[in-house]
Design brief:
Layout lengths: L1 H4 L12 H38 L1 H4 L3 H4 L2 H10 L1 H8 L13 H7 L7
């Protein structure tokens, strides 16, 4: 009887559809995220302080950004969503196309937009 079961893999029973599983999954993920937030923040703060002490940066530097906690710096950067998106987007008009002469690229470039 044991020889017959060798080499066969167990299969999980599938319940529900993929759509219903993913819809139920997001609240569960958000719940895990919320419950792990204190641990994550404590760990980040611990390693940030440890890195500052080992480099001696906290003792001699007097910059405002270095005096703030790493968590407050991250939260400050994430607070301004439009700035965050703008900084992550590539300005394609400034990129050089490989294989095209530079003079031809400058002629095709639209005029620069001003804000």
């Amino acid at each position: 009887a044991e020889a017959a079961s060798v080499g066969h893999k167990r299969r999980r029973e599938q319940t529900g559809t993929a759509c219903s599983n993913s819809e139920a999954l997001w609240p569960q993920i958000q719940s895990y995220e919320h419950s792990l937030m204190p641990f994550r923040e404590a760990t980040i703060d611990y390693w940030n302080r440890k890195a500052q002490l080992s480099s001696g940066a906290g003792l001699t530097q007097k910059f405002k950004a270095l005096n703030q906690s790493i968590l407050s710096q991250v939260q400050q950067q994430l607070a301004d969503k439009s700035r965050l998106v703008r900084r992550t987007q590539l300005k394609r008009s400034d990129a050089r196309v490989l294989g095209k002469p530079q003079q031809q690229q400058q002629q095709q470039r639209p005029p620069a937009e001003t804000n």
